[in-house]
């Protein structure tokens, strides 16, 4: 028998949190693409917003950021944090909610982890062990 909780939740978030998080991600992406934030660093570096995770009360939103250039990460996150008020007001205009969530920007390390795993699997010794395990 399938667990009802697993069907309606993903990473601890329910369907509504996921849907609202995706709406917020789209709004933030369009704001960053349009250049409404007047910062020379943000205008020159492409930024990927991988996900927006909402807290259970939907008052806090963690925005997971993947900068395209790793050297810029330390510069980009403080700039986004400073601009969170302006970004929140853009979200408030575009997404109808009782409360606009507080935006918290964090670096998404999932891509780095998957890249490190791919590099490990390319190692000839590891590849041989994997092939032997499959047989």
Automatic annotation (TrEMBL):
GO MF annotation terms: ribosomal small subunit binding
Keywords recorded for this protein, A-Z: Cytoplasm, Ribosome biogenesis
Keyword Glycoprotein in record: no
Presence of keyword Protein transport: no
Superkingdom assignment: Bacteria
Main location: cytoplasm
HAMAP family: RbfA
Role noted for this protein: One of several proteins that assist in the late maturation steps of the functional core of the 30S ribosomal subunit. Associates with free 30S ribosomal subunits (but not with 30S subunits that are part of 70S ribosomes or polysomes). Required for efficient processing of 16S rRNA. May interact with the 5'-terminal helix region of 16S rRNA.
Family, as annotated: Belongs to the RbfA family.
Subunit text: Monomer. Binds 30S ribosomal subunits, but not 50S ribosomal subunits or 70S ribosomes.
Protein name, as recorded: Ribosome-binding factor A
Species, as recorded: Candidatus Endolissoclinum faulkneri L5
Gene designation per UniProt: rbfA
